[in-house]
Structure formats: C-alpha cells, structure tokens
Amino acid sequence: MKTSHLLIWLSKNAPWVPGLIVKTQRVVYDLSGGRLMNTIEGSPICVVTMKGARSGKIFKWPLMYVAYEDGVLLVASRGGADTNPSWYFNLRANPEIDVHVRGRRMKLIAQMASPEEKKRIWPLCVEAYPSYGDYQSWTTRDIPVFVCLPRVGDPASSTADRSRNADSRGPARA
Description:
Layout: H1 3-13, H2 16-31, E1 39-40, E2 43-51, E3 58-64, E4 66-68, E5 71-75, H3 86-93, E6 96-101, E7 104-112, H4 115-128, H5 131-138, E8 145-150
Antiparallel strand pairs: 1-2, 2-3, 2-6, 4-5, 5-8, 6-7, 7-8
C-alpha cells in the first residue's frame, strides 16, 4: 500500500495519526538539517513555513516539491482526495513562505499556476512524482500547483521576477 493511500485511510479512520506523522517528520527533518526523513515514497520533501489563513499562526509543513528555476513547485494533491489540503488555503491567503530544502533556506512567493501555466508545468510534476498523474484521475477537482519563486527585492533571494512572462520559465537546471 502506498503511503498516500494509507494516509487517506488513516485520515478517515484515525484522524489524529496523519498529523502525528507530519509533526514527527517535520521535527526530525528540521533537527537533522534535512538529512533525515527527507522523502515521501522516495520523492524529496521540503519544509514550508507559512502563515495560517484564519489564525495567522506560523505553520511548518513537510511537502513534496519539484525543483523549478530558483524555487519550487508545490502540488496540492492531498493524495488524490476530493478536497484541497489545509496548507492550500494558507498559501492562497499568505503567499510569502520560507522553504527549507536539505540545508538550503529560501524566501519565496507562492502563486497558484494559471490554467495555461499548469498545462506546461504539470508534466514536470508527474515526471518528478508519477503518482500525481494517478491522483488527478482519482478526483474531480483540478489539483492546484503553486509556483514558488524568490521574493523580488529580498537580498536573501535571487533576482528572479515572478511577474515576467510565464513562457520564459522552465525547469531548474542542475
């Protein structure tokens, strides 16, 4: 059974367990500088620090990501569930985020991909984590993708400008 299937089952039958798993993974990831508990089903994760949409509290979420330009793509798949993950609402309300990827910390702005942009980047997401394709087939909702790029004018970030032409964007280069 895939981890995502197990987490969906647990969220319905033992709702406290997925939260405990997420908290444990986040703490171990942070304490180890991203060296431990840094994957889900073999795919890399990052820890995203964000402000809560309703509470204004600071939350840290371990999320799978796809490297993209000077930032990351975040896919709000929730394992193919019919509802968006709670962090989706946080990013919509408060797009300034901090992302920790294996010892590297980035200050990014998260913007939901437009339908046209998603058509271009969705194959990158599925290539990085093939189960995303399965997840989309399991739900009637269009799974949102957030393009997270450096904050403009932030000295800790690169000079990438989120407002530039979306057609000029492409995957990160190694």
